[in-house]
Amino acid sequence: MKTYRPVRAVLSEVHRLLTSKAPAHSSPLEDVADVLSDARHYTWVGIYLTFDSKTTQNLAGGEELTRFASPDSCAKMLFSMKMAAREIGVLAVETHHEFGFGRDDRVMLENVAEELARFLSGPGKYLARRARDAQRRVESVPARGPQSEKARATSAAVGEW
Question: Residue 153 above 60 pLDDT?
Answer without folding.
Answer: no
